[in-house]
Amino acid sequence: MNKITQLFNIKYPIIQGGMIWNSGYKLASAVSNSGGLGLIGAGSMYPEVLREHIQKCKKATDKPFGVNIPMLYPNLEEIINIVVEEGVKIVFTSAGNPKTWTSFLKEKGITVVHVVSSSLFALKAQEAGVDAIVAEGFEAGGHNGRDETTTLTLIPMVKEKIQIPIIAAGGIATGRGMLATMILGADGVQVGSRFAASIESSAHNNFKETIVRVKEGGTQLTLKELAPVRLVKNKFYQDVQNLYENCPSKEELIQLLGRARAKKGMFEGDLDEGELEIGQIAGLIHEILPVEQIIEQMMTEFDVAAKEKAKFEF
């Protein structure tokens, strides 16, 4: 049995990314009902909104699901307590030190996974006692590692260093991509951009339509001085690049960024002034589909690719 399907008690080793403004209970429950592991993205939710989404998710699926918690969250302790109170059994943590909450969560019987962008941080997460790690290459959308290590090189380097299961992320939207990362040493995959462009995603339809229009080279990693983030090259992105021409201070970048840019773009559908976070793989996403169909297509393509691989003879 696959390590990831066994760890989470799911049918397929496909994890949905806990993406802010995309990952409400409708997306999480649809992924879980289709055989993967759905995640509610706590990063864009006030504590009581998260509680509501957890409760609705429990009604929408009898399958396992989890919550993704960015550890930079200002109400972190309150969020953690809500997750425990509501009986969530799986937590993915990111953007912070895994030592802070891992032992507390595990004492409560919760399976803990931490997202990393390097083998160094993967080792630290393993030392902190997590059950698995997500190794995310810089192809991924949204906030990202500073080193620009690609998924192709990151997965085998992490595999060389750690013993716990590895979930590959960054640039995976197809069954072939899934097979490739598993050949490199991953036990499963985390998929973000492909699920952002699903019927059940909570993102604004303007953003979903933008995802399917993005071509190769249509995104860029920027704002490294604050927190590296991969964005669609829209007006806001161009405003950032124009500011860079004047060698801006960190304060000037913060002022331009302002507040709620991601909400404005992905949730409210402002395609000019909003922050549109999506991965490089968007160039391979051509239509908005139901989650069930996305997973079926991935698994069919995975099986076909695996059979083709078996034919290679040298």
From TrEMBL:
Pfam families: NMO. SUPFAM superfamilies: Inosine monophosphate dehydrogenase (IMPDH). Gene3D superfamilies: Aldolase class I. GO terms for molecular function: nitronate monooxygenase activity. The keyword Oxidoreductase applies. The keyword Flavoprotein applies. Keywords: Flavoprotein, FMN, Oxidoreductase. This is Enoyl-[acyl-carrier protein] reductase II. It comes from Flavobacterium saccharophilum. The lineage of its organism: Bacteria, Pseudomonadati, Bacteroidota, Flavobacteriia, Flavobacteriales.
